[in-house]
Structure formats: C-alpha cells, structure tokens
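step: validate -> pass
step: tokenize input -> pass
step: predict -> running
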Amino acid sequence: MRATTKDIYGGRDPIELPVCSLSEGAAWLQLPVSTVRAWALGQASAAGAKRSPPVIEIADAARRDLSFQNLVELHVLAAIRRQHRISLQNVRKAVAFLRKRLGTRHPLAARAMLTDGRDLLVEIGPDLVNASRAGQFEMAIVDAYLERIEFNKRGELLRLYPFTSQSLATDRRSVVIDPRIQFGRPCLRGTGVPTAVVAERFLAGESIASLVEDYGIAAAQIEEALRYEQAARAA
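step: predict -> pass
step: emit ->
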C-alpha cells in the first residue's frame, strides 16, 4: 500500500504539527509578539491576578509552539482586528460563535471562513465588523486576507501567502508558507527555498542578479523575499 502524506508525519496531518515558536510566527505574519502571545496564551488582567483564556488552541501549549493551522488562525484574526481596536473579550465571543456555527475547534482555519467569511463576520455583529459604517471597506480588507489562504478540493488547508508589504491590493504572492515544504518555513514561491536563506546569501554579499540566476525567478520576487525577511527580523 502506498504511504500517504499523513503517514510521513506519524499519522498526523502536517497542518497540526508545531512548526514555529510564538516569536517566529509573529515575525512571519508581521504581527507584534505581544499580540500573538495574548491570542495564543491569554492575557493577564491589569492587576495580574487573573489570566484570561487564549483565543485559539495552539499545537503545543507546553512548548508554546504554533502549527500551520495556528498561523492561518492568527492571519485571519489579524484581518478581523486590522481596522478596529476590538477587545479580546469580543474576539473570544466571535470565535466561540464561529466554533459553534462551523462545528470545529479551529473555525478561523476552516474552509467556510474562505467561502462564507463575509456573511459569518457580519452576522457576529457590529462589535466585530461595522456593517453599517465603512462596512464595504472593512469587509474588503477581510476578503484580501482570506484570499491568501489556499485549500484543496476537499476543503483541506494547503498553504498561506503572507503579506510582504503594507499594500493589500498590490502585494504579490512571492512568499508562501506550506507545512509540507521546508517544515513550514516561509519560502520563495515555486522554489522551495526558504526566504531566510535568500536573505542570508544577500547579506553575505551576493547580488540580486546572482540570486535570480540561481533560482530562475524574477528579480521582483527576490526583492519581495528580502523585504519580507527585513520586516520579519525587525518584528
């Protein structure tokens, strides 16, 4: 019998396996580490006496490691919060609503969030997405994030294309995170080459022209990878 992809990973789906630390995940998604920590581990009260529960269930709570599935959830949470300073309490309510509605522990990484995300988020209410004021603009931002998530025909998560710039409309999909390639490290699309390796070669003195020749891709893709790594290392 031919081994399946899941057999390679000890019978587990690769999207569920730990791939990075909280700080790495924050850097890859260009989010503040404090924000990722609050979403993944919960947040202490002002007095420090009580800790609120996390928003998502991470792959390895003991080691504080994130799975690819968790990265997708954080990516979607970033879309929801991009235009509003929504309290964690309201975000938790939204995720609880989606868990019940979609019947999954990881609703933000479910296929339905890609196909029905607009309607689901509006249904949650004005505390999360203001559908009556600037609603079209806000939902367009959510759509831009959801479109970066790729599923197969069975609705299974495949890959995520993180943003490499602040321009949602023109951002190229030059960088991809695929749990089945390079153990989920961000790579140059179509090459399997980690962006960190590209940046290391460039910082060591190699020119963009030489990298283009080696990898057989456009200079624009190399430049996007370098910008992405620069932002990730500055996070």
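step: describe -> The chain has a mean pLDDT of 82.
step: cleanup -> pass
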